[in-house]
Amino acid sequence: MNADQPLTRDQMAEVVARDIPAGSYVNLGIGQPTKVANYLRPDQGVILHTENGMLGMGPEAHGDEVDHDLVNAGKIPVTQTPGCSFFHHADSFAMMRGGHLDVCVLGAYQVSATGDLANWHTGRPEDIPAVGGAMDLAVGAKRTAVLMSLLTRDGQSKLVEQCSYPLTGVGCVSRVYTDYATFLIEPDGVHVRETYGVDFADLQQMVGAVRLIDRTAA
Amino acid sequence: MNADQPLTRDQMAEVVARDIPAGSYVNLGIGQPTKVANYLRPDQGVILHTENGMLGMGPEAHGDEVDHDLVNAGKIPVTQTPGCSFFHHADSFAMMRGGHLDVCVLGAYQVSATGDLANWHTGRPEDIPAVGGAMDLAVGAKRTAVLMSLLTRDGQSKLVEQCSYPLTGVGCVSRVYTDYATFLIEPDGVHVRETYGVDFADLQQMVGAVRLIDRTAA
Amino acid sequence: MSATICATTAEAVAGIADGSTVMIGGFGSPGQPVELIEALIDTGARGLTVVSNNAGNGDHGIAALIREGRVDKVICSFPRQSDSHCFDAAYRAGKVELELVPQGNLAERIRAASAGIGGFFTPTGYGTMLAEGKEVRQIDGVDYVLEHPIRADVALVKAHRADRLGNLVYRKTARNFGPIMASAATRTIVQVEEIVETGALDPEVIVTPSIFVDQVVAIVDPADAEESA
Amino acid sequence: MSATICATTAEAVAGIADGSTVMIGGFGSPGQPVELIEALIDTGARGLTVVSNNAGNGDHGIAALIREGRVDKVICSFPRQSDSHCFDAAYRAGKVELELVPQGNLAERIRAASAGIGGFFTPTGYGTMLAEGKEVRQIDGVDYVLEHPIRADVALVKAHRADRLGNLVYRKTARNFGPIMASAATRTIVQVEEIVETGALDPEVIVTPSIFVDQVVAIVDPADAEESA
Q1: What is the CATH number of domain B9-214?
Q2: What is residue B92's DSSP assignment?
């Protein structure tokens, strides 16, 4: 969709979901990317992995479904699906690090033009750092995608030449889904696949220093 | 036992069995050391490990007990005991390499005075080499014991200053059970705990260059 | 050596020395052995290094151990949570040291200790501040960081069922760090909801073989770390 | 990507290229996927590197693959057996290269490939001729050898049951190399005795999650490698 308006968070999740090939094994991290699950079609046959030791994770649990021994990476109670399996943490992260997941979707503070990811630490000395599985997810999947708003609250592009926040991984991101555009990070540069509510020239101005390649007509 | 005669193979196995502390987890390798199992008392509560993925291995299977999916490291059909468990090869060798087995008993071509072990390869160029789990077992257990005849067929001591056969492991053997004596390999040298059919002086002559320490009176 | 079935948590945790490194299972609340941790607090042991995915949540379990001043250092991946106020306060007061480890490296370092591996090259963390000062190497075109095993004197683990030999099975995502911690510590102490006769667990489904287990205690109705009073 | 249920072994192994590295499960006969190997022979693929614990026994399975001249190299721990005449003849004739690897290093190198580990320090083999020319390092007073992952294009694995997603369970000591090979190859082809409906396998007892499996074929009454005619 080359939409007339910037996408809402739900629309962004929908674009990501539509892009996931049928039959993929997918990790949706924590927070906003988990919304993508709401837009996966049953006939897509996507199987969700959660880092805390499960394949075939189902939707959030409610009421009597809640089982305190069954949570997702955000420690929210979830359900199981037929054909799910449980395994320990070393096996779960071997699955990630070994490149067995087809797609991983993460949030980000910043993504660089060469696919560096910053999403785990503000770098502020007063903040207690916590990394969790972010660095493992960043380098592990066959395709690491980022889902984020393009601009910070004060209007700065989060797609940058070089990350100023502490890195999560180097050169690991290949797609960036934002409210204003979907970007493909390729060896020859950052391609723009779609824009939403802006045209290519507007977008180039928004991201400033990062030189974009227009593929919206393709 | 300080016996009047050199020990038979069965008696050697019995001495090894008697030395295994109650409640130990033990690997008996392949070949002659597997005889040790015949002399373990039920009240010893010893649990046998086999490298091909099982704890709680039972005796050899006969007749209707034979199950082609249940074999020991020598690929001989065996039985299972209550409380046994199955696991894959990486887990099985992690269990060995990680030092979780209390005792491992192996055969040998030679053992050196500092506990080097040679038991996998004759070194003859015409022989096809095969190592199996020998090197893993040698370095993995809390205590690696060797069960072997003291002398080669032509009367050479297999307890040697330095192994002439290709090594299986360096400094890994701490006990050597033979037909003529039981040896303890310790930091200060090779101690003789018991002799069978020979006295200490005879034994020292048989092993030649390796200087022995007499503890038979202890 | 064979596992011992203990009548009480106090008996199970007896003898944990001051200054011990203690692995504690759990991913947040699921799998966290709250009753064993409370028994550890009761022993008075101090100067502990805790290895766990999180640094405690709420006021019980690991959070209580930190609040009571028993922990000098935490090795974990995710200390900051909405209800990690016990850790947060101790950390900001400079009372507890933090070694932050990416979760998969934490799991793999624990697994390496259990498997007798002296070190391994991992891609995770390469080029980040968590790899600063560590040896790096490019192998077949991929950049790796060298990481070393994390060993422990004691592991406290929560499983679902044990047999009398100490074989363990877990329940759903409460499995998490239990199996790898059980196999990486010199002494492994386990709380389970039920102890069954030896032979009652299918040998195909045992997750932690008894060789890794030293003490087992049954807690029939264990507290949830987030909810226990 | 999701696994495919195949009607025949020919369909399951289709497309294995000449020169492929092929992991083959089994410890001797238990776990050896004889029917898949025979289908591989039928494809005519040549110049293969076989990774397996043994180098074939009797006249079927791996032994037949070697006898038919399809194998350029074997990476294994124990080629020499009482009935390994097919390998022995090919080896002595200089037709097949042998890389001999201690069994635990073989398992750990396969596991490293599956886990994205670039290399690891193992104590096994240190100071022996099987470590000659390899990097060594002393860490905390223990001597180690650096070993690297063994990856494969294809794994042929025999399991007991699969569900329609490709989740696997094994049977007794036939489990052996199956789970680690299934997770270390680009493409994993599995023969099982029975395919059950998705959801029929207890999620707690699945040994190989479906993510590692590409093709599944049912062989109702599989041959034993030592006995098949």
Answers
A1: 3.40.1080.10
A2: H
Q: Would you call C188 an interface residue with chain B, using a CB distance cutoff of 8 Å?
A: no
Contact D140 C118 (CB under 8 A): yes
- Give yes or no for a contact between A71 and C174, defined as CB atoms under 8 angstroms apart: no
In order, the DSSP letters of D64-102 are: HHHHTT-EEEEEESB---TT-HHHHHHHHTT-SEEEE--
- Contact between B76 and B3 (Cβ < 8 Å): no
pLDDT value for B2? 57
> Which one, of D171, D177, D157, lies nearest residue D27 by Cα?
D177
* CA separation for the pair D229, A106 (Å, rounded): 54
Q: Grade residue D146 by pLDDT with cuts at 50, 70 and 90.
A: very high
Alpha-carbon gap, residue D186 to D153, rounded angstroms: 5
User: Which among C142, C169, C204 is the nearest to D169, CB-wise?
Assistant: C204
Q: What share of chain A is helix, strand, coil (3-state, %, to 5)?
A: 20, 30, 50
Neighbours of D113 (CB within 10 A): 23
Query: ipTM for the complex?
Result: 0.97
Q: CA angle C90-C92-C96, nearest 5°?
A: 45
* Distant-in-sequence, close-in-space partners of B10: CB < 8 Å, separation ≥ 6: B35, B38, B39
Q: What are phi and psi of B171, to 5 degrees?
A: 60, 35
CA atoms within 13 A on the CB side of A189: 10
Q: Which residues of C193-214 are buried (b: 16+ CB within 10 A; e: fewer)?
A: eebeebbebebbbbbbbbbbbb
Mark whether C and D touch (3+ CB pairs within 8 Å).
yes
What tens digit of pLDDT does each residue of B98-155 get?
Answer: 999 999 999 999 999 999 999 999 989 888 999 999 999 999 899 999 999 999 999 9
B99 touches D: beta carbon within 8 Å: no
Residue D208 to chain B, least CA–CA distance (Å): 10
CA–CA dist B192, C175 (Å, integer):
48
> CA of D70: how far to CAs of B146, C136, D19, in Å?
40, 39, 9
Q: How far apart are CA D137 and CA C183, in angstroms?
A: 24
Give me the helices (H) in A32-166, please. Answer: 89-97, 134-140
- Residue range A7-64, pLDDT digits in tens: 999 999 999 999 999 999 999 999 899 999 999 999 999 999 999 999 999 999 999 9
B99 Ramachandran zone, left/alpha/beta (phi>0; psi -120 to 50) = left
- Specify burial of residue C162 (Cβ count, 10 A radius: 0-12, 13-18, 19+): buried
Integer Cα distance of B136 and D53 in angstroms: 14
Q: Which of D227, D225, D228, D195 is nearest to D52 (CA)?
A: D225
Identify the closest residue of chain A to C124 by CA–CA distance: A136
| Alpha helices, H only, chain C | 9-13, 34-43, 62-67, 85-92, 103-115, 178-182
> Distance from first CA to last CA of chain B, Å, rounded?
12
Strands B117-118 and B110-112: antiparallel
**For residue D45, what is the DSSP state?**
-
In chain A, pLDDT over 70 holds for what percent of residues? 99
Domain C4-114+152-218 has CATH 3.40.1080.10: yes
B189 C-beta neighbours (distance < 10 Å), count:
13
Q: Where are the domains of chain B?
A: 9-214
Residue pair B118/B168 in contact (Cβ under 8 Å)? The answer is: yes
Q: Which residues on adjacent β-strands are paired with residue D99?
A: D75
Structure tokens belonging to residue A10:
């739900």
Work out whether strand C119-122 and strand C142-147 pair parallel, antiparallel, or are unpaired.
Answer: antiparallel
How many residues are there in chain B? 218
Please check the confidence at residue A183 and state whether its pLDDT lies above 50.
yes
Q: Which residues of A touch C78 (CB under 8 A)?
A: 130-132
Q: Does any CB of chain C come closer than 8 Å to the CB of residue B140?
A: yes
